[in-house]
Design goal:
seven-stranded mixed beta sheet, two-stranded antiparallel ribbon, alpha/beta, single chain
């Protein structure tokens, strides 16, 4: 998305234009009166949002389109899309100078988790299938899969479609959303902190795009928990961008600097150290076909 589009939508949200169009006002003059922006600003912003497909003009008024559902209403997390989370992230990028000085990003807004889950639900099906295939390739005879930090369950649902029993563990706020989002799916949902402990007795421990949001010590603990979650001969498959191997991985590290307290992009050597420390054997990293991601694989020795 062009940075100008993101900045325009961010400004429309911050000034109250988004809420005004959704609930109270339709014309530029009404939007200006409701929000306190100038009439010129209201007119230009509404015209631009209409050109971008977020609004449509009906007579003299502007109304939200289906593309803008995530900006204007969050009844169903599947309709949110990626834009609200991108706007939340922009807030933190704009605060990056202060974060660089203090080491702590700003507090998350009230809708952070909902917007985050909505964005995670937009991962394309090709990537989902490719990542799940990597895990299935490692343990084709598996029966039980643990999806660690699985968010909205897009990967968990793909495992289910392939005939596996799936348990998804994530933070309580995420699981609260999932109980509505995944109510028709045969997926066991477990609320908890993945750096505290994990459910046990699994053949595969799958973890997609979570490691970069954690610090090195947290990842070391997570790998130990993943090892403990597996039965003899089980495999852990972590999917992420590996610094020095994936395009844009170092920039992802900068994104984590803006968004998280401890996150970063990590090297193959760091992952190898964490897997070895946890007790895994036969560690390897493979590119996930058709994506810019890598599958980091370790196997728990058979008893």
């Amino acid at each position: 998305m062009d940075y100008r589009v993101l900045c325009l939508l961010w400004a429309a949200r911050e000034t109250g234009i988004v809420d005004a169009v959704a609930f109270d006002a339709g014309t530029p003059d009404e939007v200006a009166d409701k929000t306190g922006v100038t009439r010129r600003a209201a007119r230009i912003t509404l015209e631009a949002m209409a050109e971008l497909g977020f609004l449509e003009r009906v007579g003299n008024e502007y109304e939200p389109t289906n593309r803008a559902l995530g900006l204007f209403a969050k009844v169903d997390v599947r309709s949110i899309g990626s834009v609200p989370h991108r706007l939340d992230c922009l807030d933190r990028w704009l605060a990056l100078p202060e974060t660089m000085r203090t080491g702590t990003p700003p507090e998350t807004p009230d809708e952070w988790t909902t917007n985050f889950v909505g964005a995670m639900a937009t991962v394309d099906e090709t990537t989902v299938r490719a990542c799940v295939t990597e895990a299935v390739h490692e343990r084709p005879d598996a029966e039980r899969v643990l999806d660690i930090g699985g968010g909205p369950g897009v990967f968990a649902k793909e495992f289910v479609r392939r005939g596996f029993e799936v348990t998804l563990v994530d933070q309580p706020a995420v699981i609260d959303i999932d109980r509505r989002f995944l109510e028709r799916e045969p997926i066991e949902l477990v609320a908890g902190d993945i750096t505290d402990d994990l459910p046990t007795d699994f053949d595969v421990a799958f973890c997609s795009r979570v490691a970069h949001a954690l610090g090195p010590d947290e990842n070391r603990i997570l790998l130990r928990n993943a090892f403990a979650a597996l039965d003899s001969g089980g495999v852990a498959v972590f999917v992420d961008r590996i610094r020095g191997r994936a395009d844009g991985a170092a920039l992802m590290g900068a994104h984590m600097l803006a968004q998280t307290k401890n996150g970063d992009a990590y090297t193959a050597e760091q992952f190898s150290d964490w897997f070895e420390d946890a007790g895994f054997e036969r560690f390897e990293i493979r590119d996930v076909l058709g994506t810019n991601l890598q599958a980091v694989v370790g196997r728990r020795p058979r008893n």
